[in-house]
Amino acid sequence: MHAAVVSSFDRPPRYEEHPAPVPGDGEELVTMLAAGLHPRVRSGADGSHYTSRGALPMVPGVDGVGRLADGRHVYFVADDSAGGTMAEQAVVDLRRSVPLPDEADPVVVAAAMNPAMSSWVALRRRAGFRAGQSVLVLGATGSAGRMAVQVARHLGAARVVAAGRDAERLALLPGLGATEVVSLVGDPAEVAERLGAAAGDVDVVLDYTWGAPTEAALPAVLTHRTDRGAPLDWIQIGSTAGADITLPSYVLRAANLRILGSGQGSVTAAGIVAELPALVDALVAGALTVEAEPVPLEHVEAAFTAPAEGARRVVVTM
């Protein structure tokens, strides 16, 4: 079969012949239709993701839409020990899959499920989120952040504060459910004041940036809280602005703050899979939207080397 093959972490995957995977007990071979080129896939392909084992050659791809032997379409999350999904065939453990209705577009599903899952799982499995609470999305102008705004509103958030740097994309977010938007561009002190005033009393922060934006946002939000004893769940999901922050000790003492992560390891595979059917239903019903750009598998090298475009999610099609 053909696949996107990573032979070196110093260069992008190439379209090459690769041995077809062999299903194990409880697994099936699927014909792949679409696989999303998510940030998680990029970091896996260059060896920088925290789950990387350094084994080469490898096929990237962590999820996708495939066709079973009986013709049914499924969305599935690949097992870490199985081959990747950017190939003509892949192995699926049906316990990590969800059937798709006939009207589901494989490209849309492959584009949307991973970025939407990041906020969906964070709110449902990591935060003590309840309908009627308020949410700050830090880094709301990227693909996952844009989905997070929609997911938060869909799950019942009364207020969604969307903060990001891209003015054009930020202006679109009220149409997707944001009740307030905050630009992260400008004088740092003024940005901190704007953010604190808008998001001081949120219940949950979905943080896709980390790095310098989080260093500034944490004290800004905490010092503007009306009741510092009210719980605040700060959920670290992405690190588009940096892998590290400096965290002053007083921040942890100054409010009822809980910092936690959401991702592979902090949520079990079973916990993630349990959320898939409801997320698929919301997506197929049109409650969540995504900008998808299909790219044929044979052009995968160009897809990996092209600059990532914010809210648009590239999908490799087979």
If you had to describe this structure to a student in words, what would you say it looks like?
The protein is an alpha/beta fold and 318 residues long. It contains nine helices and 15 strands. Strands 3, 4, 5, 6, 7, 14 and 15 form a seven-stranded mixed β-sheet that branches. Strands 10-9-8-11-12-13 form a six-stranded parallel β-sheet, with helices on both faces. A hairpin with a 5-residue loop joins strand 4 and strand 5. Helix 2 crosses helix 3 and helix 5 crosses helix 6. The model has no long low-confidence stretch (mean pLDDT 94).
Short description:
With 318 residues, the protein is α/β, with parallel strands linked by helices. Helix content is 31%, strand content 24%.
Strand content: 15-25%
Number of beta strands: 15
**Helical amount:** 25-40%
Radius of gyration: 20 Å
